[in-house]
Amino acid sequence: MIFLGAAAPVAAQDPQANAPAAPEQPYRSLDALRRGAPLDTEPMPAPMAKVENTDLRRQRGWPEQPPTIPHSIDGYQVDKNSNRCMLCHSRAGTERFQAPMVSVTHFMDRDGQVLAQISARRYFCTQCHVVQTDARPLVENGFVDVDHLLAPAPAEAH
């Protein structure tokens, strides 16, 4: 029996296995967690996006997208006992605080019956709605709102 393991070095299956690791890549890919960093390193975390607190609503990114929240909600209590969002966005609060009322769909049960209070399945607002931040989109979005599609084209200058 011939034993070659000690006599001759065996080539690695991957010729690049012993090559130095590639330098960490800047944040520009969909690999949001590792951002191109090798698995044996701990990359610096990406900076946190800043919440936009402008009270200016954004255009939606796709049909039926839940509107984003145009203000900070830090410290808002939303649990089974209280929903701070409804102080301003309830029927009674919209006039007082000049906030848009939640959609009538939030007052319907799963069978389409209209309720006097917000439906339990729509009670936890942050399940669907997120605050607006200054984060860059990871992918381009070419969505055009129907209002823009139906708008008359501007008259051409002669």
Note down, in words, how this protein is organized.
With 158 residues, the chain is low in regular secondary structure. The protein is 11% helix and 3% strand. It is built from three helices and two strands. It has a two-stranded antiparallel ribbon. A hairpin with a 2-residue loop joins strand 1 and strand 2. The longest helix is centred in the middle third of the chain and has 7 residues. The model has no long low-confidence stretch (mean pLDDT 82).
Q: What's this model, at a glance?
A:
The chain has 158 residues and is largely without helices or strands.
Shape: extended
What's the end-to-end separation, in Å?
93 Å
Low-pLDDT runs? none
- Write down how many β-strands occur, each being a DSSP E stretch of 2 or more residues: 2
Category from helices, strands and their pairing: little secondary structure
Radius of gyration: 27 Å
Q: Write the H/E string, N to C.
A: EEHHH
Strand fraction band? under 5%
Described by strand count, sense and barrel closure, the largest sheet is: 2 strands, antiparallel
Counting DSSP H or I runs of 4 or more residues, the number of helices is 3
Helix content: 10-25%
Strand order in space, largest sheet: 1-2
Q: Indicate the mean pLDDT.
A: 82
Layout of SSEs?
Blueprint: E1 78-79, E2 82-83, H1 85-89, H2 91-97, H3 146-150
Antiparallel strand pairs: 1-2
Annotation keywords:
158 residues, extended, single chain, two-stranded antiparallel sheet, little secondary structure
